[in-house]
Amino acid sequence: MVRDVAGIALDWTETGAGRPILLLHGFVPLAHDAPVLDALARAGRVMAPSHPGFGAAPRPDGFETIYDLVQLYAALLDELESPVTLVGCSFGGWIAAELALARPRRTARLVLADALGVRFSADPLHRDILDLFNTNPREVTEHAWHDVAKAPDFDSMPDAAVVAAARARDALCLYGWDPHMYNPRLGAWLHRIAPPCLVLWGESDRVVTPDYGRAYAAAIPGARFSLIPRAGHHPELEQPAAFAEAVAAFMEETR
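RESULT FIELD:
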């Protein structure tokens, strides 16, 4: 399915009914049949776009910054009838944090899952976020997954899937190369995030560790931090049922 937002065609998946949930993906877009979509659909109407440049979503010329992504999704929120539960995973969590600041009245509640986007360490030699582009891909996989057997196996993928994964990596490089996966100004404004916030983290995440997640939660007034066992950087993929259950419970608490 394709949805036009601000003149940009988004590869769009939608399922469920009721309270709107906008799910922003991480390093790669969610498959249209990803188990987390049906699991989350028990809590509401799930909308899961692919960011421009990821999957089958085209990227317009000149569309190449986090600012472009935030403004695109701000336009989407303005189109929707009701404020959303905004759920951002990994790279999508960075977008979600920026978006909650840009459109606080259109964000009913915020869930940040293993979110990127902030530098907390004052040590210039310390990396808060694993260098995704200059680290051996096998090592990235080991850092990102609790069970590496669940990671994508590029050797067994059809050619079209490998091409889609390569497009996603290219887009990720474009949006997040320098500074590497963070906005130097975002940390100073996290205290302005107004919607109720849940910070979810994979217990085994070594791309951004649980301590990074705790720092994220501590910087947002009233935010709650929760770990998902047996999950790495992608709890929505490794533990979709537990992930959806945590989001649904948070939605009930903040109804």
